[in-house]
Amino acid sequence: MLKLLKYAKKYIVHALISPIFMIGEVIFELMIPLVMADIVNLIQTDGFSDASLNQMLKYGLRMLIYAICSLCCGTLAARAAAVAGMGFGAKLRENMMGKIQTFSFSNIDRFSTASLITRLTTDVNSVQNTFVMMIRMLFRSPVQFVVALIFTIRMSKEVSSAFLVSLPLITLILIIFAPIAMKRFKRLLEMFDGFNASIQENLTNIRVVKAFVRSDYEKDKFKTSNDNLLKASIHAEKLMILGQPTFMMIMYGTILAILYIAAKCISAETLDIGNFTAVYTYVMQILMSFLMVIFLIMQFFMSQASAKRINEVINEIPDIRDDTATVTTVKDGSIEFKNATFKYAGANNPVIKNADFKIESGEMVGIIGATGSAKTSLVQLIPRLYDVTEGQVLVGGVDVKDYKIHALREEVSMVLQKNVLFSGSIADNLRWGNKNATDEELIEACKIADAHEFISSFPDGYNTDLSQGGSNVSGGQKQRLCIARAILKKPKILI
Do β-strands 493-494 and 412-413 pair in parallel, antiparallel, or remain unpaired? Predict the structure, then answer.
């Protein structure tokens, strides 16, 4: 959790201001019971005489000023904490997404898409909420607890003795149950991954589900995933469900003990009524602040599981890097495989073994083979989407590992097996190939890909909006748009 706090650096001022205002809120809040005690003592001694009423008005005005100051400090603290918390969460997500963009295919293979989505949303939200609570309550609750306890001890040592049993008891319960809760919430987050995977798979492939009339099967699969998540949630929350009434029982037991002790002290005239009202208020504040500290610690332990999963993404080292690469220009589109062997991570046997061939710049070559014969795996080695396990792949006479990745991939354009389009206009999708392309260049590329005719038939032409994944165009049209996008890049190598 502490490793992630560096992402709050930009919001350090707000993160520091919030606790300062929180302490101010507590101080003004703790002054009110003292004034209340003075009012009660004044009524007890002088009744409602003109002099006492005037004094009470002064006390009332002082209470009002304290309350307004407390309210202002609390509002400013809450606003600063919200800015710091939301900013921290946004920065954390931004860095995680930036790191994911550096992953090779093999890195992405180690994390499922659903798991990455959960980490970017649920896990970040959990850590963000804990961070906000930390900067608000980590200072407020201990300060409130300590100051209120000091006031209580000063007013009545006998009453404050009731805490000697309850507070250590609550601390002991916390020490026992916190590590168990953390393990259970870690398991719950893993179930979220499976749940999100089920939803994503179903919605992405909804047309296939309907085409094969598999809605009932998908409903049953979703129910299983949902029920597993429910069981994991109940299992994780059991400790919280048991903990809350346990803590409340100890809290109310402490209040009863304090009331009993206070009643004896009042009878013995060692504690007056006015001070008792202040002491009782401070007792409630002590107990509430201690419960808030407990809740904060529990939240901290629960978010540890999320923090660990976030750190796994941030600390993942990309398998394909170009730290030592120096070449920034691809001379030509020649490709050479020199005894290249490739094996997927965790696989026993290589899918490509001792591939050895050369394609000259300007040549057109077709790679033919049965399904599963590693045609796609072979071409993915050219732009370093994967790296060879043994041997070399050369582009323009230079080992692909010697190129800066951006420079190499700028000169390789690939139309993937799965034709992927994004939400936005047709023109926006085409400009993925060249963001600065003119309208004339778009038309030229689409004519080569045999896409210009069907695009022109749309009322809005190249400004036609595509649905998510390009679902409002046919499979063949989608493929032609992807080919046009690849051509528009004007690469040295076109796959």
Answer: parallel
Spacing of C-alpha 190 from chain mean position: 14
CA gap 237, 181 in Å, rounded? 8
Q: Label the pairing between strands 390-395 and 335-342.
A: antiparallel
- The label of the residue with tokens 């649920």 reads 122
Distance in angstroms (rounded) separating the CA atoms of residues 433 and 488: 5
State the Cα–Cα distance between residues 156 and 262, nearest whole angstrom: 9
| Backbone CA torsion sign across 347, 195, 93, 307 | negative
DSSP bridge pairs for 340: 355
Angle between helix axes 475-488 and 439-448 (nearest 10 degrees) is 120
Identify which of 263, 273, 316, 252 has the alpha carbon closest to the alpha carbon of residue 102: 316
- Beta pairing, strands 390-395 & 398-399: antiparallel
Contact 482, 420 (CB under 8 A): yes
What's the average model confidence in pLDDT over 236-240?
71
The reported pLDDT for the residue numbered 261 is: 84
pLDDT in tens, 477-487: 889 999 999 99
Query: Model's pTM, two decimal places?
Result: 0.68
DSSP 329: -
Angle at 275 between CA 269 and CA 278, to 5 degrees: 150
pLDDT at 63 over 80: yes
At 351, is the secondary structure helix, strand, or coil?
coil
Contact 389, 324 (CB under 8 A): no
With H, G, I as helix, E, B as strand and everything else as coil, classify residue 209: helix
Phi, psi at 382, each rounded to 5°: -70, -50
Closest to 122 (Cα-Cα) out of 313, 297, 306: 306
Paired with 341 in beta bridges are 390
Report the amino acid identity of residue 26. Answer: V
337 DSSP β-pair partners: 357, 393
3-state secondary structure of 345: coil
Record the tokens describing residue 455, joined without a space: 């695009």
